[in-house]
Design goal:
two-stranded antiparallel ribbon; mainly alpha; disordered C terminus; 240 residues
């Protein structure tokens, strides 16, 4: 039983190796890039559009709607990064129904890389929205004594993101293998359906958590300004 695609090596020369994780990650990226190119090369603003464009619009509208519900702000600021994360993870997870495909998200190296991207995206979005000084001040809130804990929380939630996605995908692989050993004629269909559902849910959870972390960084300084006193000694909180 293969738990992680890292153990499947297709080519190796010295310390350099091409594993199933790398190969299928590039396969997913090629599918996303190729599908996007095919759909967007003939975009139309008419009332009648192609099925590919209609599907793309439905997916983008759904992602934008979820972002809007979570951050209550302009979703286009977060759409490129969050949308890319969601599509990469969900396609990787859904393609496990294809015989021979190994989900890259079943590798700790892949989930760690995605979590590291979120780790660097949080300050990038925060600095872009509030400036370097405004973002760094958020680490001193509500009191400077919490600075070490705020820094530790940045690291621990990154580790949590990586392990959560990897753990769920790995456990799904193990459960499927056990079920196939017990009842190989009945369980495959059920486990494939459950695997698809779990894969979509895990992609959603990862993307939403990333969005929450990024949104908290961009809104920290705005909340400080909203609660600060104005020239007349009144706070701006609650005013239209």
């Amino acid at each position: 039983m293969t738990i992680t695609p890292d153990t499947i090596i297709y080519w190796q020369h010295g310390p350099f190796a091409i594993s199933a994780t790398l190969v299928f990650t590039w396969v997913v990226m090629a599918l996303l890039a190729g599908g996007s190119w095919l759909v967007t090369r003939d975009l139309s603003g008419a009332t009648s559009v192609s099925r590919g464009q209609l599907l793309l619009e439905i997916v983008l509208s759904g992602i934008r709607g979820q972002i809007q519900d979570v951050v209550d702000a302009d979703p286009d600021r977060y759409l490129p990064f969050i949308g890319t994360l969601f599509l990469l993870i969900v396609v990787s997870n859904v393609l496990v129904v294809v015989p021979g495909f190994r989900a890259p998200t079943g590798s700790l190296s892949t989930t760690t890389a995605l979590a590291v991207c979120v780790f660097f995206a949080v300050p990038a979005f925060g600095i872009a929205a509030n400036g370097l000084r405004g973002y760094l001040k958020s680490y001193l809130q509500p009191t400077p004594f919490l600075l070490p804990f705020n820094i530790i929380s940045e690291i621990t939630r990154t580790i949590s993101l990586a392990i959560r996605l990897f753990g769920n995908m790995m456990s799904g692989t193990m459960i499927t293998a056990v079920a196939l050993a017990i009842a190989p004629l009945f369980f495959p269909v059920i486990m494939n359906v459950l695997g698809l559902l779990i894969g979509v849910i895990q992609a959603y959870i990862f993307s939403i958590l990333a969005l929450v972390y990024i949104a908290s960084a961009t809104r920290a300084h705005e909340e400080q300004l909203a609660g600060s006193p104005n020239e007349e000694g009144e706070t701006t909180r609650g005013k239209p």
